[in-house]
Write a structure and sequence with these properties.
Largest sheet of chain A: 6 strands, mixed
Number of strands of chain B: 25
Helix content of chain A: 25-40%
Structural class of chain B: alpha/beta
Oligomer: heterodimer
Number of strands of chain A: 10
Largest sheet of chain B: 6 strands, mixed
Radius of gyration of chain B: 29 Å
Structural class of chain A: alpha/beta
Strand order of the largest sheet of chain A: 6-7-8-3-9-10
Radius of gyration of chain A: 19 Å
Chain lengths: 279, 691
């Protein structure tokens, strides 16, 4: 946030701003018997350090493909993804992904699931230090009492908190969230959104998050990236979310611009880029 | 409408290990008409699925009875089809075979060809021709749910029961299926009961939204009619003037349920000190310029100076929140619209009467009527122009936003319109919308105007959304705006605290009135915990403001809308000679207006009601102890139309009003609920007959 505003000021001064995450001319196609099938095309996006970005679009618009290229799980067909000026090549722990399906190992306890990640990234740390990191991050998501439980004993919301704790425990610079709250009920979802904002506030890592939920995006993000429909999807529009931080859900509902923004995004998704599964 | 589903006094308890019981549903009474679409909404664990399962026959009630089409429900049956979140398709059968299995099992009266034709018809209905021969694993979640819906509808059920059918789908697939479901229900007149926790889904689909309170012992907390015409289209629904007020009504209910424990925890035991019965107070307010005395009493230490050392100001977004806080007992006191103490005492909004008293008028003026910019372009400068516009455009009655039925804005707007020959219930539409949403609604064109307190009129003008067509000067100069309200039993239990509270707020009112403090006051009000907006939107008058224009003028020069908002408005007055004293004449006028528009009965015992409700004694004690002059003169109220209101004959006054709702009179008992039987005995009759 702050970095974003600093960046903008610097740009107005004419001096150069160092972009933190730069996506330039990015495209991805898959080869099929009928020739290449373009998923994404000409995606350009600059993200400042510490910024919170939500990517919104219909199913099949290539959102996940886009984030996979940022995380390094997928390689671009065209264009580049640069983090702090260096091209991204392959997944590394400075970009951590949290999936909707939690991806926890069912035979390990909550503690061991997180420990596994900490150990993989920081093998040189002493056991005590690694355990301390795990404890701290479980406390961060309010799960210190569930450390000895197995994933199957937890609710969906708790599992997702474990996944978030695991991602944060290795101190990523970029946190990539692929619809992390999509499978949760409304209340749990709201609680976790608030927790995520608190954590992001303390950590100030850069967040890229895919969501289908417009209210979630307006509550969390600094900017909304709206995708066009595939094939050859690209960024259709970028919306700045003006609500001051720290954010409060009720305050946002009081802000006249909330209703305008919400209707703009709905209009974008349901009128301009309407999408029917039957088609 | 015929009643298809009838739940009478339905309760459900589940046995727990160790002989305990979980009491899921308290007595529930609900009727669903044929062809109606009802949404059940509530938090997880509120028993909404239990209720659905009782109608489905998957569970049996512990007490009470569930009737569908007159028959008692005791088992599941194909005339009540359920669609679950998780599809329940057989994985080894194709979409077509899944549907055919149900059709063949249930529609045994049909021949084979007819059954096959039925299967094909419903595959087409949900648009699944291209996927009919695929197995569940080969199709998406949205398509699976369409198979489940087709299977349910193919059996021609009397009732479709949907248990969060789209909960597992992403929001956009969900959107498409909602539109499809709406079309099918509309075309086939299917009666539907749907469980959901998605507020937008409920408003889009339902005729009625039934809101359940949190368990255990869940009950129906509120029912909302969604009066949006059908057939509905999503974007049209979102742009409907009522959409966001319906939505905020439901969100308010749900967040209130979420906060309920926290709210109850607020009504802490009284901490007495310095001869005051209670110094720990929770005081409610709505962020408007008029909340200034409360903010100042807190921030400048006036509460503490009068011994109220533990005051917590509770910010509410709507007047509804203030009402519920006072009625529910988790607020000790609150800033209220002038009509709210009477409205609550007389059982407005069909609620149980809650006697509320007022010992202090906090503000006067500060209201205005704002119209959408296009009315200015159409040459509407005053009430007469507006009437002309309405006559010419009678097929498009304008929609006005007001913030609460009991607010001065609603009553002054109605008075103003009616005095100009415009019936506020017939010629225009009035819509209750929380203050902060008015400007957004005006800008998007979902409402044509509003009457509200500052800062919203100035803000609408500054943002180019609208202009002020009438101010307090044009309607009733010096009218009461906000008052202090407390429950009557509270006042009885904490008499010294009540006096101290009035003293602290009187001191604060005096501070607010002083123009030397206005800069500091604007800064204070602009803070995040109060109005949370740029101070340029907050205007308190002072220099540059038109000093005193004769009242009754409806012609005004064409000023720039922002200048007009800044300089022609009658700005808030916080402290005036005898201006803070609760006035029986004014409350009586409010009583006539509330009765005039059918909100409450006009009490036959109006003298008693006013004596009880207007706590002049508390005010006088407080003012005397502060050394203020408490002399006053009872006089008539002169409104802009030349009609004068006298204290002595309210019924005659009501009879003399040309435009009004059916007014009824009743003896209103102000005895506390726990001591009395029915609070109000309502006798419907014409005022003339009663008088």
């Amino acid at each position: 946030m702050k970095a974003l505003y600093d960046g903008v000021t610097e740009r107005q001064d004419g001096s150069r701003r160092e972009t933190y995450l730069e996506i330039a001319g990015l495209g991805k196609h898959y080869d099929t018997p009928n020739g290449p099938y373009p998923v994404l095309k000409d995606v350009d996006l600059e993200v400042a350090a510490g910024e919170f970005i939500c990517v919104v679009g219909h199913s099949g618009c290539g959102k996940t493909t886009l984030l996979n290229m940022v995380s390094g799980f997928a390689t671009p067909s065209e264009g580049t993804v640069r983090l702090k000026g260096r091209p991204v090549a392959g997944p590394v722990p400075d970009r951590m992904v949290v999936f909707q399906g939690y991806a926890l190992l069912p035979w390990l306890t909550v503690f061991d699931n997180v420990y596994l990640a900490v150990n993989a990234v920081n093998p040189e740390f002493s056991r005590g230090r690694k355990a301390q990191i795990v404890d701290e991050h479980l406390a961060l998501v309010g799960l210190e009492d569930a450390a000895r439980h197995y994933p199957a004993q937890l609710s969906g919301g708790m599992k997702q908190r474990v996944a978030i704790a695991r991602a944060l425990a290795i101190r990523p610079e970029v946190l990539i969230l692929d619809e992390p709250f999509g499978a949760l009920d409304a209340i749990t979802k709201e609680d976790l959104q608030e927790q995520l904002l608190t954590i992001w506030n303390e950590y100030r890592c850069t967040v890229l998050m895919i969501t289908h939920d417009i209210d979630e995006a307006l509550f969390l993000a600094d900017r909304l990236v709206l995708m066009t429909n595939g094939p050859a999807a690209t960024i259709g529009e970028i919306i700045e979310v003006p609500f001051p931080r720290p954010r409060n859900r009720e305050r946002i509902l009081e802000d006249p611009s909330y209703y305008q923004l919400r209707n703009d995004v709905l209009e974008y998704l349901y009128e301009r880029y309407a999408h029917d599964e039957t088609a | 409408m015929n009643t298809l589903v009838n739940l009478e006094q339905v309760q459900k308890r589940f046995a727990l290990p160790g002989g305990h019981q979980y009491h899921a549903l308290d007595p529930i009474d609900l009727k669903i008409g044929t062809g109606e679409f009802v949404a059940l909404i509530g938090h997880s664990g509120c028993g909404k699925s239990t209720l659905l399962n009782l109608v489905a026959g998957l569970l049996l009630p512990t007490e009470g009875i569930v009737l569908v089409d007159g028959d008692r429900v005791s088992t599941p049956g194909p005339e009540r089809m359920v669609v679950f979140q998780h599809y329940s398709l057989l994985p080894w059968l194709t979409a077509r075979q899944n549907i055919a299995l149900a059709v063949n099992a249930v529609l045994t009266g049909l021949g084979r060809e007819e059954r096959e034709a039925t299967v094909e018809e419903y595959i087409r209905l949900v648009g699944l021709q291209h996927a009919a021969d695929k197995r569940p694993a080969e199709i998406s979640g949205g398509m699976k749910q369409r198979v489940a819906i087709a299977r349910a509808l193919a059996l021609h059920p009397k009732l479709l029961l949907l248990d969060e059918p789209f909960g597992a789908l992403d929001a956009l697939t969900r959107g498409n299926l909602q539109e499809q479901l709406m079309r099918i229900c509309q075309e086939h007149r299917v009666t539907t009961l749907m469980v959901t926790h998605d507020v937008d889904e409920a408003v889009l689909l339902a005729d009625r939204v039934v809101m359940l309170t949190n368990g255990p012992r869940s009950r129906i907390g509120s029912v909302l009619e969604i009066a949006i015409p059908r057939p509905r289209r999503r974007m049209e629904v979102i742009n409907h003037p009522s959409y966001y007020s319906y939505r905020s009504e439901i969100i308010y209910f749900l967040s209130q349920q979420k906060r309920i424990k926290e709210l109850r925890a607020r009504s802490r035991a009284a901490v007495g000190r310095h001869g005051l019965e209670k110094v720990n107070l929770e005081i409610g307010f709505v962020p408007l310029t008029a909340c200034a005395p409360l903010a100042v009493a807190k921030e400048r230490g006036f509460f503490a100076r009068h011994g109220l050392e533990e005051v917590n100001l509770v910010r509410e977004t709507s007047w509804r929140g203030v009402r519920d806080g006072i009625a529910g007992g988790w607020l000790d006191a609150a800033q209220m619209p002038a009509g709210m103490p009477l409205w609550m005492s007389l059982g407005g909004g069909d609620a149980e009467p809650t006697p509320v008293v007022s010992a202090l008028t906090l503000t006067r003026n500060g209201n205005a009527v704002t119209l959408h910019q296009r009315f200015l372009d159409a040459g509407v400068h005053n009430l007469r122009d507006l009437r002309g516009w309405i006559t010419e455009n009678s097929d498009h009655p304008p929609v006005f936003g007001v913030v609460h039925p009991s607010s001065m804005h609603n009553l002054l707007l109605r008075y103003w319109l009616a005095a100009g020959g415009i019936d506020p219930d017939r010629d225009v539409r009035l819509q209750t919308i929380p203050p902060a949403q008015l400007v957004a609604n005006l800008r998007s064109g979902t409402i044509d105007g509003f009457c509200v307190g500052e800062p919203w009129n100035l803000r609408a003008a500054m943002e180019g959304a609208g202009y002020i067509v009438a101010t307090d000067r044009d309607i009733w100069m010096g009218h009461p705006g906000k008052v202090l309200g407390v429950r009557e039993p509270w006042s009885r239990n904490y008499p010294n605290t009540h006096v101290a509270l009035v003293k602290a707020l009187l001191d604060a009112c005096r501070w607010c009135e002083d123009a030397d403090n206005h800069e500091a006051l604007r800064e204070l009000l602009s803070r995040r915990e109060y109005l949370s907006m740029d101070p340029s939107y907050i205007d308190l008058g002072g220099e540059g403001a038109v000093a005193d224009v004769a009242t009754g003028t409806t012609q005004k020069p064409r000023l720039d809308p922002v200048d007009a908002a800044r300089y022609q408005c009658a700005h808030h007055r916080f402290f005036l000679a005898a201006g803070n004293r609760p006035s029986r004449t004014e409350h009586l006028w409010l009583m006539t207006q509330l009765a005039r528009w059918g909100d409450v009965p006009f009490p036959r015992n109006w003298v008693e009601v006013l004596e009880r409700m207007c706590r002049v004694d508390v005010f006088s004690t407080a003012a005397r102890e502060l050394g203020l002059d408490i002399s006053y003169q009872r006089g008539a109220i002169d409104l802009f139309d030349g009609v004068s209101f006298q204290w002595d004959d309210p019924v005659g006054y009501l009879n003399g009003l040309a435009i009004k709702h059916d007014v009824y009179m009743a003896e209103v008992s102000l005895t506390r609920r726990d001591q009395a039987g029915p609070g109000v005995e309502r006798a419907w009759s014409d005022v003339a007959a009663a008088a």
